[in-house]
Amino acid sequence: MNTRIALTMTVPAAIAVFCLTPPSLSATDSGDTPISIGSRASRWYLGPVAGQNQNFHSSGFKSFSNDAHCPTFPTGEAKGFYAGLSVQYFLQPPVRARTSIIARFMYDNRPASYATHCESSLHRVRTPDGELRELEAMTRHEAVVDYDFLNLELLFNAMIGSSKFGITVGPSIGYTLQADLEQVFKLLRPLNAELENGTLYELRDNNRTLVIQDGAFPASANWRIGLTAGLLYEHQVGKFLFVPHIDYDYALSKLSAVENLRVNALRAGIDIRRVF
């Protein structure tokens, strides 16, 4: 959480410093017209990148992995964000450049929430008279995955014809900073009963919520490998290149060695680069 607060304060400040600091002298600083600046006198562009994730966690894990009757969690979803540094190098001479390499180094936040109901099943519960009984019960299984990592992308960009639109594709590699999991099991009905767990799990909400796990995700992987593809639009204003983009980042690797969970995301954001 402290990391996210620091990023929220640091990224706008970095963008302000980036925009206000004059670039080093080059051919574009010696009386060039806006047209010559727009023709990319340098092949290098550098600046911040930020945006929002719509996360999709594809999964197949259960609340109780050893219970064959326990429902499997469906796909988890939540919104997240990313922020970092973007570098672009044009592969052709500046005037006719139509392809480039884009590298992004980012802090990536990709949480997800899961929920599934079990409409009717037998559960051992404690009734108001203090007796333990097997009763038909309605239950709800919930899980929240909190996943943050440092992400490095290396993308090939090809502009479409003579337009300002481009297609990007390339690999990504991430290093895990945080992978936490909170799983709970809730008793919805009967309303006058309580869950019974012995000493195995923590109970909350007047003994109607069972905390199955609250901590590090089991056997979480240190590295994440992905493949990113998307669409961008380049708009140049003086020495600045504004590049809104949308892409999909698909996980080739699993979040955990013991659970079938992959962290994917649909992303929308903007790069603001300046010629160097």
Which key terms come to mind for this protein?
276 residues; mainly beta; Porin; eight-stranded antiparallel β-barrel; 2 helices; 13 strands; 9% helix; elongated
Number of spatially distinct domains:
1
Largest sheet: 8 strands, antiparallel, barrel
- Count every helix, treating DSSP H or I runs of 4 or more residues as helices: 2
What's the SSE pattern?
HHEEEEEEEEEEEEE
Task: Characterize the overall form.
Answer: elongated
Quote the beta fraction.
over 45%
Give a count of the beta strands, DSSP E runs of length 2 or more: 13
Distance between the termini: 35 Å
Using only C-alpha atoms, the radius of gyration works out to: 25 Å
Strand order of the largest sheet: 1-2-3-5-6-10-12-13
The average pLDDT score comes to 82
CATH top level?
Mainly Beta
CATH second-level architecture = Beta Barrel
User: Structural class given helices, strands, pairing?
Assistant: mainly beta
- CATH fold-level name: Porin
Which parts are unreliable, with pLDDT below 50 for 5 consecutive residues or more?
A: 23-39
Q: Helical percent range?
A: under 10%
